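Lecture 7 notes: from sequence to structure.
We start with the chain below.
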Amino acid sequence: MSKVIAFLLKFGLVNKDGTKNYDQIKESLNLQKTTKEIQEYIDFLLLACENPQSISSNMIYNTGQKVLQRINAMEKLLTLLSSLDENTEIPFFESAPKWRNAPPQWTSELEYKFFVEVAKCGFGELNLIFSQEPFIKVFENGPPAFMLNDHAVAKRVEALHQFKNSGSKVVVEKKKKSEKHKRSESALCPKPVTVAGLAELEDGEIEYPIMITPSSFILNIGRVVYDRPGWHTSRYIYPAGYKSMKLFASVKNPEERVNWISEICGTGKKTPVFKVYMEDDPKVCFTAESPSAPWVNVLKAVSEAKKEKSKSNSISGPDAFLLTAPVVTYLIQNLPNAHKCMQYNFKEIKGAPAKPPRIAKHEDETEINDQNTETTSTEQQTNENNETITDVSKSPKRRSRRNDDDTELEPNEVIGIAASIPRRVHKQVRRSSSSESEIDSDSDRSDRNDEADEDDDRDAIISDMDDSDDYE
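Predicted structure tokens for the same chain:
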């Protein structure tokens, strides 16, 4: 019955209408078996594939795993394609996460046509597909090797299917709005990078926006301000220019979920400003000197719109800003100058790659830099060592001293790196000649921020928050 296995590897087990294609297998392979016998054999084969302990041969095991993957991938591909029409097929692929390492000439339209051919010709025919138009004109010297790998193509199908079920509808709707609001952040979101796990960041290059969950993104990781105590605590670093986005209830219509932007802004002062506003109406904006306060005001506004005065308005600001997501923590800890944040206790991130990824230049970087001109100017004037804050997107290959050293340290020794840095670079030491009252004031404010953060983390995010935003 090797012919049956070969058929399953190529076309899977499900027809376009979702039914099992036992009759098609019998007819295509000209098998002298009844449909019932074919079904019983395939059922036995799939049972064996799903229970590796019952398989003694490595060859059969490996083949069985391929069979399971191809059947699953083909079923999802057919389901995906059947759900699209001429009005949604190209917009869907435009809004879907970019196929990692795909070349620039790999357009959304080309990818759609490619998967139509995969559904038609089956797996194992990738070379044949790329030898035909329009693909042969695009890749004169042949496509990238991974595009000729059935396993990689099957994984891409899985990612597209997951995106379709989780968030594509919202992104497509925002694409329509972006025609009217060309500078809207939603114009960035059609091209997110799916970050399924920290290990996938190793030796890679990622582009904004960075998908944290299907409904939350990082739009800019920002840059570290290390010489002002208010810009970090023992638990969090607050990068200047940091910007995230997540779906949450609208204050205008609580039944509708809209994109909310969270920003950490610099004004040239000792502490950052935390700003939260609706993407489609920036006038609905809340600001404060802590991450929790603006989101508490968002919750109050939503509760008032829902007429739920008795509802709790407690929320963790760092969670809402996505600062507690492991991927975000990892990226911030690997920013230039992060090791100079003297109060911050570096966290051990399980599964983190040894080398941080390169982050492509932010598409809206000019606007963000303009917003923080006052911060940058003040930093350059007050930094005695003329060390300016560096945007990670401008220095993709630069790594901090902590990154070079921490691979040989135990987790509890990571903070020791900061202690080894000359104290002359820390602004608080340079301020030692200032009045004791000013230093005490800054220290008290930092302590209050730490306490507030700890209280925030103990608060559960209210039921209005999307359950899909759990990071652990």
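Points to note: Confidence is low (pLDDT under 50) at residues 55-59, 168-197, 363-472. Residues 1-73 form one domain.
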